[in-house]
Design a protein that fits this description.
The structure holds two protein chains of two kinds. By secondary structure, chain A is of the alpha+beta class. Chain A is built from eight helices and 20 strands. In chain A, the strands form four sheets. Chain A has a six-stranded mixed β-sheet with strand order 6-7-8-3-9-10, with helices on both faces. Classes of the chains: A alpha+beta, B mainly alpha. The interface between A and B is medium-sized, with 24 and 20 residues. Chain A: Keywords: ATP-binding, Cell inner membrane, Cell membrane, Membrane, Nucleotide-binding, Sugar transport, Translocase, Transport.
Chain lengths: 348, 294
C-alpha cells in the first residue's frame, strides 16, 4: 500500500529517441490507475520505469514520498503481471507462486499458508502441482495474478495482462481484477491499449499519446469532456464523429445549422448521442445524410452515413430498418456537441 | 500427428532411402562387423595366417593392467575435458550475452578456435607449455611450480585436458549463446521483480532453462572426449609419459597400428563401442529425466 508519484518523468534511449516526454501523475493510495494509448505511445515504457526495469532518464518516481529512481526492481517491493505471463516453465504452479516469497526469506509454513490462501481466492487450488504448459491461457493468467498477489507488495503493475485471452474470458477477468484490486486495496498501475478495459477498470484514467499525457482524470469525465480530438477519437467505440468546419461551412460546402463558437474548426459528436429523425429538432445540429452501410449488432445497430463530405457513424437502438442509399436527417442536441480548435484542443 | 505420406509407387520409397542405407551399411555396419570378426581372430607373428579364438582376445585385454589403466585415464580425461570446456563456455556465453556493444565481434572471436585443426591446437599448447621453450611453462617455473609434462604424468594429463577442452569451448559457447537467447527476457525480469538477485536468478531460472542445451552438450562432449581427441593426444604427449595419457582410443591405435596386435586392438574397439553405446543410453535414460523442454 503506497502512493505513487511521477514527476516530469522522461525516457531517452541511447539512440536519442525520446519515448516518454515528461509525464507527471499522482496516484493516491489504493487507487487503480490505467495508462491507455495506441502502441508506441510510451505507456509500457512508463510502467517499466515504475517497475525499475528501465532507468529513468529525468524526473522522479516516488513511492510514499520516497524517491525510488536508483532502487532496482528487486528492492522496490512491487509485483508485475506480464502480457505473456512470464511464468517459470520449469516450476510447478505452487513454486511459481512461492518463488518470490522464498527469495525474501519468508518462513516455510507462512509461504505454504499464503500460497494456498491465494490459490483458493483464484480457484487454482487443484492446479498447484501442474506446470505452466499444462494450463490453459486463462489458468496461466490466474497463476500470473496469483504470483503477484501472494507477495502482498506495495504496488501492482499490470502490462496488458488480458490481451492474450479471448473476448469472453477477458470480460470475466476484467471484473475479477477490479474486485481483487478493491478487496486487497493495493495501489495499481495498469497498461492497456483497449479503451473498454481502460474505461471499466480505472479510478484514474491517463490517456497517452506520443510520450505525453493527453488527458488524465475520472474515466467518465474524460468520456464526457475529451480535452482533444485524439482523446475524443480514442475513448469510446465506435469513435466520435469529427467534422472539419471553416467559416460556418462543412468541407462539402453545406452550411452549418448552428453557430460555432469562436476559434472552433472541428465539430464532434458521439455516435450514441446522435439520432436519426424525420422531423428535425428545434435546437441542435441537423445534418442531411445518406446511408452507406448498416451494421446490426443485436441490441443496437450502427449506421454508416455520408454527411457533410465525411463518413459518420450513428448508433440507433434495436434493429435499423434503413436501407443502403436511404436519405435521412441526423440530429444531435446542442449540449452533446464538442468543439475543437485547429490544434485539436477543446473549445468551450 | 501429421498424416502418413502414402507413395503410390511401391519401389520409389525404397529407392529414395537407398543412398542413405548404402552409406550406413558400407561405412558403419560393414566396418563394425569386420571389427567384431577381427576381434575373435589371432594372427601369427608374421601375419601369414590367423586363427579363430572366440573371446580369448577379450579375456586377454580385460586382464591386462595396462588396459585397466587406460580406462582410468579415459574416465579422468573425459570428465575433466567435458566439465572444463562446458563450464568455461557457459561463463563466456553468459558474459557475451550481457555485452551490448559489438557483441557480434566478441562472438565471432570466441568461435574462431573451433576452426583450428586438433593436431594444430595440440601443437599450440605443446609449444606454450614446452618445458624448455614454452612461454607459459617459463611463467609457471617463475611462480615456483616445477613444470615438466614430459616427465610428470599428471601434468601431461592437465596439458591434454586443457588442449582438448580449449578446442571444444567454441562449439559449446555457440550452443550456450543460442540457448541463452531462447530464454525470454521477461522471465528474467519477472525473477528480478520476485526478489532474486543476479546469482540466484542464474541458478534458479537461467540454468534450469538451459538444461536441454547442457544435456545435449554433455552427450556431444563425452563422445568428443572419447573419440575426437586422438589428434591432440597424438601431437602433445603420444600417450605418455609412460601410459599416463593413453586413452582407450589411443591404445586401440597403439596396439593395432604401432604394435600390430590386430586382434587385441579390434577387441578393444568393440569394447569401446559398447561403452559409448551404454554411456549414451544412460545419459538419455537418467539425465534427460531432469531436463525440461519448453
Amino acid at each position: 500500500m503506497a502512493t505513487v508519484d511521477l514527476k516530469d518523468v522522461r525516457k531517452v534511449y541511447p539512440g536519442g529517441v525520446e519515448a516518454v516526454k515528461g509525464v507527471s501523475i499522482a496516484i493516491p493510495d489504493k487507487a487503480l490507475c490505467v495508462l491507455v494509448g495506441p502502441s508506441g505511445c510510451g505507456k509500457s515504457t512508463l510502467l517499466r520505469m515504475i517497475a525499475g526495469l528501465e532507468t529513468i532518464s529525468d524526473g522522479t518516481c516516488a513511492f510514499d514520498g520516497k524517491v525510488v529512481n536508483t532502487i532496482g526492481p528487486t528492492e522496490r517491493d512491487i509485483a508485475m503481471v506480464f502480457q505473456n505471463y512470464a511464468l517459470y516453465p520449469h516450476m510447478k504452479v505452487y513454486d511459481n507462486m512461492a518463488y518470490g516469497l522464498r527469495n525474501r526469506g519468508t518462513p516455510k509454513d507462512e509461504i505454504d499458508r499464503r500460497v494456498r490462501e491465494t490459490a483458493k481466492i483464484l480457484e487454482l487450488s487443484h492446479l498447484l502441482d501442474r506446470r505452466p504448459r499444462e494450463l490453459s491461457g486463462g489458468q496461466r493468467q490466474r497463476v500470473a495474478m496469483g504470483r503477484a498477489i501472494v507477495r502482498q507488495p506495495k504496488v501492482f503493475l499490470f502490462d496488458e495482462p488480458l490481451s492474450n485471452l479471448d473476448a469472453k474470458l477477458r470480460g470475466q477477468m476484467r471484473v475479477e481484477i477490479k474486485n481483487l484490486q478493491r478487496a486487497l486495496g493495493v495501489t495499481s498501475v495498469y497498461v492497456t491499449h483497449d479503451q473498454l478495459e481502460a474505461m471499466t477498470l480505472a479510478d484514474i484514467l491517463v490517456v497517452m499519446n506520443a510520450g505525453k499525457v493527453e488527458q488524465m482524470g475520472n474515466p467518465l469525465d474524460i468520456y464526457e469532456q475529451p480535452a482533444s480530438t485524439f482523446v475524443a477519437s480514442f475513448i469510446g467505440a465506435p469513435p466520435m464523429n469529427l467534422l472539419p468546419i471553416t467559416n460556418g461551412k462543412f468541407t462539402d460546402g453545406s452550411a452549418l445549422s448552428i453557430t460555432a463558437p469562436a476559434g472552433a474548426t472541428i465539430l464532434g459528436f458521439r455516435p450514441e448521442d446522435a439520432d436519426v429523425t424525420e422531423s428535425a429538432p428545434k435546437q441542435g445540429l441537423t445534418l442531411p445524410a445518406k446511408v452507406e452501410g448498416v451494421e446490426p449488432v443485436g441490441a443496437e445497430s450502427f449506421l454508416y452515413c455520408a454527411a457533410a463530405g465525411q463518413r459518420i457513424v450513428v448508433r440507433v437502438s434495436g434493429r435499423a430498418l434503413h436501407e443502403i442509399g436511404a436519405k435521412l436527417t441526423v440530429s444531435a442536441p446542442l449540449e452533446k456537441l464538442h468543439w475543437f480548435d485547429k490544434d485539436g484542443k477543446r473549445v468551450g | 500427428m501429421t498424416p502418413r505420406v502414402v507413395f503410390p509407387n511401391k519401389i520409389l520409397p525404397y529407392l529414395l532411402v537407398a543412398p542413405q542405407l548404402a552409406i550406413t551399411l558400407v561405412f558403419f555396419y560393414w566396418p563394425a562387423s569386420q571389427a567384431l570378426y577381427q576381434s575373435m581372430l589371432r594372427e601369427d607373428p608374421f601375419g601369414l595366417k590367423s586363427k579363430f579364438v572366440w573371446f580369448d582376445n577379450f579375456k586377454k585385454v580385460l586382464a591386462d593392467p595396462n588396459y585397466i589403466n587406460s580406462i582410468h585415464v579415459t574416465a579422468i580425461f573425459s570428465i575433466a575435458t567435458a566439465l572444463l570446456s562446458m563450464v568455461v563456455a557457459l561463463i563466456l556465453a553468459v558474459m557475451a550475452d550481457k555485452v551490448v556493444r559489438s557483441r557480434n565481434l566478441y562472438r565471432t572471436l570466441l568461435i574462431w578456435p573451433y576452426a583450428v585443426a586438433p593436431a594444430i591446437a595440440g601443437m599450440l599448447w605443446l609449444f606454450l607449455f614446452n618445458p624448455s621453450i614454452g612461454s607459459l611453462a617459463y611463467a609457471l617455473r617463475w611462480m615456483g611450480i616445477p613444470w615438466d609434462p614430459l616427465l610428470k604424468g599428471d601434468q601431461a594429463m592437465v596439458l591434454v585436458v586443457m588442449a582438448a577442452a580449449w578446442k571444444q569451448i567454441s562449439y559449446n559457447f555457440l550452443f550456450f549463446v543460442a540457448g541463452l537467447q531462447a530464454i525470454p527476457k521477461t522471465l528474467i525480469e519477472a525473477a528480478a521483480i520476485d526478489g532474486a538477485r543476479e546469482f540466484k536468478r542464474f541458478w534458479t531460472i537461467v540454468f534450469p532453462l538451459l538444461a536441454p542445451t547442457t544435456f545435449f552438450l554433455l552427450v556431444v562432449n563425452t563422445v568428443y572426449a572419447f573419440f575426437d581427441t586422438f589428434g591432440i593426444i597424438h601431437a602433445v604427449t603420444g600417450g605418455g609419459p609412460g601410459k599416463a595419457t593413453e586413452t582407450l582410443v589411443y591404445k586401440v591405435y597403439n596396439d593395432g597400428f604401432v604394435n600390430l596386435i590386430l586382434g587385441d586392438s579390434a577387441a578393444q574397439s568393440v569394447i569401446l563401442m559398447v561403452i559409448v553405446i551404454a554411456l549414451t543410453a544412460v545419459q538419455f535414460r537418467y539425465v534427460e529425466r531432469k531436463v525440461h523442454y519448453g
